[in-house]
Structures are given as structure tokens and as C-alpha cells.
Amino acid sequence: MAELTLSSLAQNLVGSSAVDNQRRAKQLASQGVEIYDLGIGEPDGDSPEVVKQAAIAAINRGESHYVDPRGLEALREKIADFEWRCHGLKIDPLQIVVTVGSLGALSLAFRTLLDANDEVLILEPFWGPYANMIKLFGAKPVVIPAVEVDGALLPDFVALENSITERTKLVILNSPNNPSGKVWSLSELQKLGELCEQHNIWIVSDEVYSELVYDPIKHVSVATLSPAIAARTIVATSVSKSFAMTGWRLGYCIASPEVAVVLAKINHYTVRCAATVSQWAALAAFDHFEDLLSEMRARYAHRCALVERLFSRYPDFQFIKPEGTFYAFVKVPHYIDDVEVFVKRLLEEKGVVVSAGKAYGQSSRRFIRLSFATNDLVIEGGITRIGELANQIKH
Ligand SMILES: Cc1ncc(COP(=O)(O)O)c(C=O)c1O
């Protein structure tokens, strides 16, 4: 009998090193090792009480049915209002498609735009899953190294333009950026927009950290630059990080009305609709967004300041204050030869989980990413141990 095979795209997928790290941390914890987990990519607290109550009420009302593949109309109205008030993005609810998290929104965008062998520009440092997601759609990721300026990794527009070919279909923009915490400035966004107009390229703008910015930094959506740029942009975002709702799996795409029709069709054929109860829960989050977001920002601003204070004790590490997100992206001292070995030793010898920079592209191979979506004790214990191991290596 002929052998059963998986698709060649599936066979070539690479697993996530972050998942391996977390598994090993769990194993160590079960052996009684104290773990300082600075690897987590999600808010540490529960979802807000109003969100939980709205979901319970929805269940009790019998909201257990399919809804329109575009998402609940009431939710899309709330999102349109939120996008206008928070980001100045003027959209009609018909331009919104509610998805299964921003991963679902990104997948929909890629499925809608990409043909086999199309090229997708990804700027370093980039969120790890992008490259594999692109491959899963049969397209080719083209990675653009960053330029390093005083320990900060910035977009290299010359390298970006030089990488454009006739097969280039889209560029992924991620601001605020995971892992670097960088928020793109208006002039950087304009440069990107101009390049995309000049070369007729789509923009998929992953704005999942849009609400997590630190004063006086403001998040600007590339879709607000001009109607022409909005027409070539699909925004992919979610309530995961802003409202501590990762497990509800609720996100959305924003696109032109014509593109939104296609996104909704593909949503229908892949998941039918995002979970109905989660949609009602998200609606409650948008109803209370001002209070929920200001409380959340204050919490992370406090933690960010704590991370900054702790790293000031270890000046061999190059720490640049993140402008957004809950990640610190820190350049390790020159006497640490191999960052991946350092990250492994941190886990095995000190119980500290961080991510090695290589996962985000070659330009960041001298960096480690720490998440401060955790409590002060874990942050303090973790960073102190990072400093200790570095000192042991130095002396
Ligand atoms: C840059 C980036 N995009 C997308 C996601 C996925 O988020 P969601 O939970 O909305 O699917 C994450 C999650 O870590 C992320 O960091």
C-alpha cells in the first residue's frame, strides 16, 4: 500500500524554540526548582471582571449559535468607535472582520493576499511565527536585517528597497514591535508607505500591542496616513494583550470594504466565525476600554521602570527602554560568547526563562528578550540572576 504523506508545506514546518523552553521550565519546576519566567508572551492577570461577567451572561442568554462570519454587528460597531477614538482611524463596521485572535487575522490576510512563491518582506527583529506562517501559505519570507544604532535595532530602508523584486507582494509591519519594544515613528511609517505605493506592495500591519505604549509615545496606525495607504493595508489585531484576553481567541482585521468581503468569505470557510461567547466578552471590554486600558498601562509602566532600575545595576548589559509592549530587548555583554548557551545556562543553573535573540533574526543574535508581564518578585529575582550569571562568566 502506498505510504500516507503529509503536505510538503507541513513537513517542512519548524517547531517553536520558545515552546521547548517553556516545557523544560515546567519540568524543572516539577522537580522543585524555583522558576523566574520572563519568557511569557501574555498578560499575567485574569481577564477583567466585566469581561467574565459579560461572557457568563451571554452563555446564560443562550448565545451559543453561529453568527455572521464578519462578526457580531454590535461588536464591529464598538470596534469602529474604538479605532476612531483611540487611533483616529475612520472606518465603517463593514471594514471589520472578527477573527480567531490576531493569529487568525494574520492568517486571513495572508490567505487573501498571497499566491504560491510570492515574496513577503519581514523586517528584523521580527516575531518568530511570521516566517513559518508565510511558508504555510506557500509563499517565501524575505528577511531584512536591521541596522543597529547605539544598541537599538532600527528598520533599514535601503536594504528594504533593495530586497523588492517583481514577486514582492507584501510587507509585514509590527509596531509596537515584539521583541524590540520599538514603536515606529510617523516619518518611518511614511517612508514605508511611500515605498509600498511606489512598488505596489500590500502592508499587513500587526498592531496587537497598539494599546501598550509608554508616555509620551503614541501608537500610529499606518492605515491613518492616507486613504491610498489605507487601501493597501490590512490591519491585524486583537483583544489578547490589551485586555488580558489571550485565551478568548478574539481578534479582527481592518481592510477596505472590498477586501473585507473576501476576508469574511475566507473566515467562513476556515472557522465559520470567531467564538460567539468571546465576541460578547470582547464587546464588554470595548465598552469599558478607557478604565481598563489606563489601569493596564499604569501596571506595565511601573514594571518597565522596575526593569530599567534593575538593569542600571548591570551596565554591561545594553538596556534601551521599550517604547511599547511588555518586552525588554537587551544586548548582552561582549564577554558572553554564545547567547544561546547563556540562555540555556540561565534556565538550567538559575531557573530563569528568557528568549535568545536569534529567534527574531540574525541582527538580534546578541540580544535576549525578557517579558515583564509578570509580578515584581519574578522580575527582580530573574534580572538579579541574569546579572549573577553574567558576573560569573566575566570573572
Ligand atoms: C507580534 C504578535 N502578533 C500576534 C500575536 C498573536 O496574538 P493573538 O493572541 O491575538 O493571536 C502575538 C502574540 O504573542 C504577537 O506577539
Topology record:
Blueprint lengths: L7 H4 L5 H14 L5 E2 L11 H13 L11 H15 L8 E4 L1 H13 L5 E5 L5 H8 L3 E5 L2 E3 L2 E3 L2 H6 L5 E7 L11 H13 L3 E5 L20 H5 L1 E6 L12 E4 L2 H14 L5 H12 L1 H23 L6 E2 L7 E5 L7 H12 L1 E2 L1 E2 L10 E5 L4 H19 L1
Parallel strand pairs: 1-13, 3-4, 3-7, 7-8, 8-9
Antiparallel strand pairs: 2-10, 5-6, 9-10, 11-12, 12-15, 14-15
The structure holds pyridoxal-5'-phosphate.
Give the number of helices: 14
Distance between the termini: 63 Å
Structural class by helix and strand composition:
alpha/beta
What level of helicity do the residues show? Answer: 40-55%
Q: Extract low-pLDDT stretches.
A: none
Give the CATH topology of the largest domain: Aspartate Aminotransferase, domain 2
Q: Quickly count the domains.
A: 2
Q: What average pLDDT do the residues reach?
A: 96
- Named at the architecture level, the CATH assignment of the largest domain is 3-Layer(aba) Sandwich
What is the alpha-carbon Rg in Å? Answer: 21 Å
What spatial order of strands do you see in the largest sheet? 2-10-9-8-7-3-4
> What shape does the CA trace take?
globular
How large a portion of the residues is in β-strands, by DSSP E? 15-25%
Number of strands: 15
| Major pleated sheet | 7 strands, mixed
SSE arrangement, N to C: HHEHHEHEHEEEHEHEHEEHHHEEHEEEH
* Ligand catalogue: pyridoxal-5'-phosphate
CATH class descriptor name of the largest domain = Alpha Beta
